[in-house]
Amino acid sequence: MEHSTSLIATIAVAFGVALILGFAAERLKVPALVGYLAAGILIGPATPGFVADADTASQLSEIGVMLLMFGVGLHFSLDDLLAVKRIALPGAIVQLGLATLLGMAMASWWGWSLGAALIFGLSLSVASTVVLVKALESRGVLETMNGRIAVGWLVVEDLATVLVLVLLPPLAEVLGGSTAPAADAGPLWRTIGKTLLEISVFIAIMWIAGRRALPWLLWQIARTGSRELFTLAVIAAAISIAYGAAALFNVSFALGAFFAGMVMRESEFSHRAAAESLPLRDAFAVLFFVAVGMLFDPAVLVEKPWHVLGVIAIIIVGKSIAAMGLVLAFRYPLNTSLTVAASLAQIGEFSFILAGLGMSLGLLPAEGQSLVLAGALISIALNPVIFAAISPATAWILRHSAMARRLEHRPDPFAELPLSTERRYLKGQVVVVGYGRVGRRIAEALRARGIPYVVAERDRERVEWLRKHDVVAVSGDAADPAVLIQAHIADAAMLVIAAPDPVNVRKMAETARTLNPRIEMVLRTHSDHEAQLLRREDIGAVFFGEEELAKGMMSHVLQRFAPAASPRPQDQGARADIH
Question: Residue 446's pLDDT band (boundaries 50, 70, 90)?
Fold first, then answer.
C-alpha cells in the first residue's frame, strides 16, 4: 500500500472490520466495544493479514481520546455528583485505593518495578463510564437511585484519574521511567509545582474567560441557522482547546478536552452541542478502541494465563467485594450494593489511556498493557451477565442469609418520621412522592400557601437535606407500603405521585387506596397510553407531560388570537345601521 493512501486504508479497514465485529458482538448480547477491540486485534501486527498503519492509528486515537473526554465533560453535572456525594466521594476514593493496592501487590509479586506496579494497579481500578451508562440505560435504571449512585461513583473515579494523568509525567523519573529528563529540569517539587501552576492557570482561563466566550460563540453560530457550522464550531472548540492546552500549558489532551466539555455545558446550547457532535464522537471513539486493540498481543492469553486470571479476579471479584462492602457500610440496601459492585466489575477507556501513558513514559512494560487489554475485553464481555445476575443473586442471598436480611431491613433513621413531627403533618396533609423537578415545584407551591405536606423520596441524601431545611420527609420507595405508612397516608387528604416511575405508579395508588379509601390522588405518567388506562380506572387526576405542555401552548395561542370581547347582538345591529 502506498504511503499516500495509508490514512484512507487505515480508516476504511478499521471502520469496516469494527462494523462487522461490533454487530456480531451486539447479536451475542455483548457490548459493541468488545467488537471494536477485537477489530483492532485483527488488523494489528500481532495477527496475520492486513496490518494497519500504527502511527496513523495512534494519531486518530488521540482525536478519539479528545472527543471521548469532551463528551465526558459535556455530560458532567456537578449537581448530579453533589446529590450522591456522601457515598460516591468517599466510596470511590477508598475503592480506587484498595483496587490499586491489589494490582500493585500482584505486579510486585511478579517482580515488576514500583512505577510499573502503580500504573498497573491504577489501570485495573478505573471502571468504564461508557460501558456503565449503556448497561444502566439498557435496563432502564439509569435515573433510579441505584443508577445515580453508580454514575456518581464513576464520575469521582474519572476526576481522580484525570488528576493522575496530570501528575504522572513530572513523577515519571522518580517512579523509574525511562524517559530522559529535560536538560533544564529542576528539583521534583519545582517540576510538580510548575505543572500544577500551569494547570491552575489553564483551568482559571477556561472557567473565567471560556464560560463567557464559548457560549457567546455558540450563540453567534446558532444565529446563522447553519447546522453544519454549529457542528463544526463544537468540534473545533473541543480539539482546538485540547491542542492549545497541550501546546501552551503542557496539559494533556484529555484534560483540555474534558474542561472544554465542562465549560460548554454552561451554555444553553449544551444539549444541542452534545447531539450534533455525537456522531463524530462515536466514530472517533470507535477508532480509539480499534487503535487500542492493535496494541494487544493475544499471545499473552497463552503465555501468561495465570496472570490474566489474576487480573480478572481483581477486576471482577476484588473491586466488586470492596465496593459492595463500602455501600453496605453506608447503610444502603443489598440491591444497591450489588448494582454498584456490578457497575465496577469492568475496566475501559481510562484504563487504556493510563496504560498508554505508562508505556510512553517507560513505566509500564508491553506485557502490562496486554494484560490490561485482556482484562478489559473479558470483563466488558462478562458485564451484562453480572448485571443480569443482580436480581436472582439478591433473592438467593436474602433467602439463605439471616445477616443479609438484617442488613436489608436494618433501622434507617430517615425511614421514619421523627417523634417531634408536628400534628398538622400527620393528618389532612398532602403526601408528595418524589422530590425531583416536578415534585420540588409542587412542594414549593404548597409551602407558599401554608399547606402541610410530607415528602416520600428514595434518595436518602436528599431526604437528609430536606430535613435540614425543615421539610418533613421520609426515605424509601413509595411502592413499599411501609413508606406510605410512615408518611401517615391513612390520615392524609391527598397523594401526589410526582416521581418519574411508570412501573410502580399503580402499585403506589393501590396501596394508598387500601390504607385510605377516601384519599384524593394526583398521578404523573410518561405515556399517553398509560394516562388513558389510569383515567379509565378512575384512580385520580392523571397528568401526562406532553399533553399538559400542549394544553398550555394551545391556551396561549388561542388567547393571543381571541377577540377582546364578544360583540352583543344590539351592537351588531348598531354597526349594521352605521354601515
Answer: very high
Q: What are the φ/ψ torsions at residue 512 (nearest 5 degrees)?
A: -60, -45
pLDDT band at 124 (very low <50, low <70, confident <90, very high): very high
Position 127, amino acid: A
For the chain, first and last CA: distance in Å? 89
Per DSSP, helices labelled H in 28-128 are 32-42, 54-75, 78-83, 85-109, 114-125
| Closest CA relative to residue 545, chosen from 553, 536, 533 | 553
Average pLDDT over residues 115-140: 81
Comparing C-alpha atoms, which of 8, 17, 12, 6 is closest to residue 55? 6
Instruction: Please state at what angle helix 366-388 crosses helix 390-400, rounded to 10 degrees.
Output: 70
What is the DSSP secondary structure assignment for residue 568, as one 8-state letter? P
Positions of E strands within 352-452: 430-433
What does DSSP assign to residue 361? T
Backbone angles phi, psi at 330, to 5 degrees: -85, 10
* Cα gap 290→292, rounded to integer Å: 5
> What does the alpha-carbon distance between residue 366 and residue 38 come to, in Å, rounded to a whole number?
18
Q: Which of 377, 374, 355 is nearest to 366 (CA)?
A: 355
Other Cβ atoms less than 10 A from the Cβ of 185: the count is 12
Domains by residue range for the chain, with CATH? 3-175+187-396 (1.20.1530.20), 423-561 (3.40.50.720)
Q: Is the pLDDT of residue 5 over 50?
A: yes
At 497, which helix (H) or strand (E)? strand 494-497
In which residue are the cell numbers 513505566 written? Answer: 363
Percent of the chain exceeding pLDDT 70 equals 88
Task: Summarize pLDDT for 65-123 with one digit per residue, the tens.
Answer: 788 778 777 766 666 666 677 788 888 889 899 999 999 999 999 999 888 899 999 99
Write the DSSP string, 109-160.
HTT--HHHHHHHHHHHHPPPHHHHHHHHHHTT-TTSHHHHHHHHHHHHHHHH
- Using the predicted structure, report yes or no on whether residue 217 has a pLDDT greater than 70: yes
Query: What is the rounded CA–CA span in Å between residue 35 and residue 16?
Result: 12
Q: What CA–CA distance (Å, rounded) separates 35 from 24? A: 7
Burial of 453 (0-12, 13-18, 19+ CB in 10 A): buried
Q: What value does the mean pLDDT take over residues 349-376?
A: 86
Please state, in angstroms and rounded to a whole number, the distance separating the CA atoms of residues 527 and 544. Answer: 7
